[in-house]
Amino acid sequence: MPNKKKRKNVEGLNNKQCEIERDNQVRKSFSYLQIMLFINVIRKIYKTNDGRLKMIISNQTIIITGGTSGIGLAFAKKFLELGNRVIVIGRNQNTIDQVTLENKGLIGLQGDVSSADSVREMATFIQNHYPEASILFNSAGIMRAFNVLDEQMSLEQVTAEVTTNLNGTIWMTKALLPQLVKQQEAMIVTISSGLSYISSPIHPVYSGTKVAVHRYTDALRIQLNRTGKNIHVLEIVPPLVNETNLESNGDGESVSTRIPNMTLDKLVNEGIKGIKKNKKRVVPGFSKFLRLAGKIFPDFLANVMGKSGE
């Protein structure tokens, strides 16, 4: 008799445990379902056509800031090859003349994206002469390596780096948005950097501005998506790029250190693919590693990158 009672008690306990386990499984399944439903709701709220419809990049009029050298010029040549009208913006008229002479079909426009007055003048000129312009490619940038204790680095130089990299992108976008929203389809491209994920200690201002460009681009995309306007926003996040020299005049992004680099041709090809597919973001080459490493061991990698420039 005692053995039977024990068996019944054990069986009862086992049944109870099974019920508890089933209840836990149901709760887990329900929680998982809730999470998935929540994610779907969020996706609908922030729904975007980016990456779902192909962007036509032929027979377009494209404005490229910093288009007379570096990344900007490389993309300008590719856009021209694809059958587009391409207007390259630069500060130096002599450089513009040389670039347009060497690349038949490119149209030059002198302007300074770090000057609000110049941006207004360029926007008015573009609206009057190229009202069909539908793609803005923000590529102007300055990248300076310096020690924050260096007294030779003036406040004006620091300010120029900020206004060119950050203000220039924001101002040109703001100034041309009224024109872009009128187009059947339009796109704004920004150039941030893999250094928006991991700071480069030897490029303190540049790193800071690229973080800001990264965040600004995300905010811009979300706002424009909510308007229902057919304006796509793409962020290209290049790693360090070969075949470019360290620029300080704002006429194109360029860098040179011992960190693994990418060729300009490969960067352009990746960027063009992203534009055609209406991607939100193109993160090529070493930038993929920086994005991942920035979440795992950012401080360690930042120190390594700082030493690479010594």
From TrEMBL:
GO terms for cellular component:
membrane
Any GO molecular function: oxidoreductase activity
Gene3D superfamilies in the cross-refs: NAD(P)-binding Rossmann-like Domain
Q: Which PROSITE patterns match?
A: ADH_SHORT
Which keywords, in A-to-Z order, does the entry hold?
Answer: Oxidoreductase
Q: State the InterPro entries in the record.
A: NAD(P)-bd_dom_sf (IPR036291), Sc_DH/Rdtase_CS (IPR020904), SDR_fam (IPR002347)
Family stated for the protein in its record: Belongs to the short-chain dehydrogenases/reductases (SDR) family.
- Protein name listed in UniProt: Short chain dehydrogenase
